[in-house]
Amino acid sequence: xxxxxxxxxxxxxxxxxxxxxxxxxxxxxxxxxxxxxxxxxxxxxxxxxxxxxxxxxxxxxxxxxxxxxxxxxxxxxxxxxxxxxxxxxxxxxxxxxxxxxxxxxxxxxxxxxxxxxxxxxxxxxxxxxxxxxxxxxxxxxxxxxxxxxxxxxxxxxxxxxxxxxxxxxxxxxxxxxxxxxxxxxxxxxxxxxxxxxxxxxxxxxxxxxxxxxxxxxxxxxxxxxxxxxxxxxxxxxxxxxxxxxxxxxxxxxxxxxxxxxxxxxxxxxxxxxxxxxxxxxxxxxxxxxxxxxxxxxxxxxxxxxxx
Length: 307
Prior knowledge:
46% of the residues lie in helices and 6% in strands.
């Protein structure tokens, strides 16, 4: 039986990574972008024969991280995945940033703050989780990285760790109240003994275990069904950024609040926020200073004869 190679390298799969060249790295990137009936040796149905740009970028990011680690640890001299290997077009800015509308956000928190939910430990935890995601704009991984010692409730901030390193995230008094109610809930379980960061995570299941990615996704699925609001963790981050841009927060401050390494990424939220741009345009329109109001109100037609 003939099995397709994982990617079109000229050497047999399973060879040492030090033999991978930049040319083969480019072929791998091209392989991901090409629609195929068989991928990774498995048949692919027609609608999914083309990987989405997000999937291509995810595969590329993973393999680059691996080869960069090999280079750092001196297992290879130089990573073949250099700047000439492109998995996505960095100059494309035509993707639409989807966020949660304010009316849907109010409906979501209407469900989260129901008295019967807040009477339970899990209800208080879910409110604290969603409130922090919306109010700070942190990533899902950053949320799960928070340990008890990272919280600074006196200054409404917490330390998070994620794809761009370690930084501080800020939150409001309302969010602080949700966090305090969760941390001091009488039915909050004692944390089961563990090791490393999991032993001090502030997000716990009903059994006292550290909340996982799967557990958080399960919470979001239940809330989507209960509230009727279509959202996910990263869409709440988009919502934070869009609302901040709409309220006039500068792109430089927004970059720091979001933890972006490049301001180019942050500019997408400013460029696509039509409400904020409308507020900027209205008083600064080139025609706003011209007295054209009365002239334009006249009905078009034959000019008046002078008497």
